[in-house]
Design a protein that fits this description.
- By secondary structure, the protein is an alpha+beta fold.
- It has one domain.
- The chain has five helices and six strands.
- A six-stranded antiparallel β-barrel has the order 1-2-3-6-5-4.
- A hairpin with a 3-residue loop joins strand 2 and strand 3.
- The longest helix has 25 residues.
- The two termini are 33 Å apart.
């Protein structure tokens, strides 16, 4: 455990909802797989094809990403108005994260059983804002090691950790 406490931690205002995998492993796996399918939504497919055909060369990438995200939000609102909300699996535990890095995170409330594998959802404040599903293994009552994320979610996680590290460096420089 001493080695885990020596890890480099960055603070982040994230909240994780999680449950032991053994509680409902089949439903957790289905939800985790649905998070991967969100990559293949109609707008995402259209964008991939447009890029492959070279139709986006003249487009501003930031403006294009924002427009796509706006369309996704309109689709989400339409589903909400029609009562077609996306159902998520019920998770039994919830905790703020008081530290994270590229391979681990630390929960504020000691709620983990060492050696147990968990399924979790975390709302990531990246663009576009989204929830990610992931699996982790408890290394102690408070420390979790990431064990399975979708590739795009791993990139979002790594990018978020890097941005939090940059923010911490700026704060330290301002104090000096």
């Amino acid at each position: 455990m001493g080695d885990l406490e020596q890890l480099h931690w960055v603070s982040a205002p994230l909240v994780a909802e999680f449950s032991a995998e053994s509680e409902n492993s089949d439903e957790f796996k289905l939800e985790f797989d649905r998070f991967a399918e969100s990559d293949d939504d109609p707008l995402g497919e259209w964008l991939k094809l447009a890029r492959a055909r070279g139709e986006t060369k003249e487009s501003d990438p930031v403006l294009l990403a924002m427009t796509i995200d706006l369309h996704r939000k309109i689709d989400e609102l339409t589903r909400f108005i029609k009562g077609e909300e996306i159902r998520r699996v019920q998770l039994t535990l919830k905790s703020r994260l008081d530290g994270l890095n590229y391979t681990h995170f630390r929960v504020e409330t000691p709620a983990l059983k060492t050696g147990e594998r968990y399924y979790a959802r975390i709302a990531m404040p990246v663009f576009p804002i989204r929830e990610i599903g992931l699996y982790f293994v408890a290394k102690s009552e408070k420390i979790a090691e990431l064990s399975l994320l979708h590739e795009r979610d791993q990139k979002a996680w790594d990018s978020y950790v890097a941005s939090r590290e940059r923010a911490m460096i700026r704060q330290m420089k301002e104090r000096q």
